[in-house]
Amino acid sequence: MSKFIDVNDSNFQKDVLEYADTPVLVKFWAPWCGPCKVMTPIAEQVAAARSDDDLRFVDINVDEAVNVTQALSIRGVPTVMLFNKGQRVAAVTGGLNRQQLEAFIDQHI
């Protein structure tokens, strides 16, 4: 079972910006994106290895969340963003391996 919560334009505010319990890792992806398909199981492994008290994991399909994608100036996928208490803390665009994704998370939370 995936730890990633599907988020779109209608629930982004509540599930990411207003979520204050833990930092939120948002993975922007698209079904037509090859690197996204490679990164998805890697992100799932990273999520499975972390505590729910440590980090919340969110998936956003850029084709379905056009307003959020435009508001955050997403120019490429996959893009990973980290939010804490509604503020964007860090972002990286491009496919990441497990070690790179874990380092990105650890560096910014």
Automatic annotation (TrEMBL):
Keyword match Transferase: no
Gene3D superfamilies registered for this protein in UniProt: Glutaredoxin
Key word Lipoprotein present: no
Pfam families: Thioredoxin
Cysteine pairs bridged by disulfides in the record: C33-C36
InterPro entries named in the record: Thioredoxin (IPR005746), Thioredoxin-like_sf (IPR036249), Thioredoxin_domain (IPR013766)
Superkingdom to which the source organism belongs: Bacteria
PROSITE patterns cross-referenced by the UniProt entry: THIOREDOXIN_2
UniProt GO cellular component terms: cytoplasm
UniProt xrefs under SUPFAM superfamilies: Thioredoxin-like
The entry's keywords: Disulfide bond, Electron transport, Isomerase, Redox-active center, Transport
MF-aspect GO terms: isomerase activity; protein-disulfide reductase activity
Positions of the Thioredoxin domain: 1-109
Protein family according to the UniProt entry: Belongs to the thioredoxin family.
Name of the protein in question: Thioredoxin
Species annotation: Zymobacter palmae
